[in-house]
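Priority: low. Protein: ABC transporter ATP-binding protein. Input follows.
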Amino acid sequence: MQSVIQVKNVSKKYRSHQVLQNIDLTVNKNEIYGLLGPSGAGKTTLVKMIAGIEIPTTGSISVLDSVMPKLNTMTQIGFMAQSDALYGELSGKENLEFFSSIYGLKGQKQKERIDQASDLVNLTNFLQKPVNQYSGGMKRRLSLAAALLHDPKILILDEPTVGIDPVLRQSIWDELYKLSKSGTTILVTTHVMDEAEKCSQLGMLRDGKIIASGSPRELKDNTSSTSIEEAFLYYGGAHHAN
Ligand SMILES: Nc1ncnc2c1ncn2[C@@H]1O[C@H](COP(=O)(O)OP(=O)(O)OP(=O)(O)O)[C@@H](O)[C@H]1O
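Result:
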């Protein structure tokens, strides 16, 4: 199996605050890898380092065989941050035009990619509306479309479905499966257990450490759990007992 993301012994400190400790993690091509953990566990910090936005204090991260941060590799990553970085005064379409021009898309290709990405997130009929009139869920969907514009090899999504209703959440997951089947590798953070269940591989993060990793099935079988939540509590407890 071809690995596209390798995190080796990574730690991150902000001043004296140790946020992540000795993280090892591998994501293989076409996987949907979920980083599951409660608020403050360090998920955002970890995905930002993988995307090349933050730098580890110690350890190394390589993406598509390049040590991060590397500009060329960063252009092959679509990153959807937790808070939407959108221009409120501009319409949805103008936002997508702006982001696609940053990726160097122009003319017919730009139009095609904007059409595809907005269709994927069901925003086609709202593209003319200013973004400051969008609901929270619509802003999330527009951010997802923006992350997809340049057809990235790796998609990194930080809590992508927060504020999105269950029907649309399912349709976004359906699209993530399609993207993964067509060759996109997806790394997604979540604190929602049933969402973690949808991933092909999971890393459970707690207090800045990976407490367990494997497929949802493996994690449940290995702990004789009937749910991911139960497995998470098991590993969390075992971790604290050590
Ligand atoms: N720039 C920063 N400077 C100092 N501390 C930071 C910084 N960024 C994050 N932290 C701290 O690192 C810890 C982990 O934060 P992080 O956002 O990575 O967690 P998270 O698991 O993504 O949580 P959430 O789901 O709430 O965003 C928190 O205690 C946070 O306060």
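The radius of gyration is 18 Å. The pocket of adenosine-5'-triphosphate is lined by residues 14, 17, 19, 37, 39-45, 82, 191 (CB under 6 Å).
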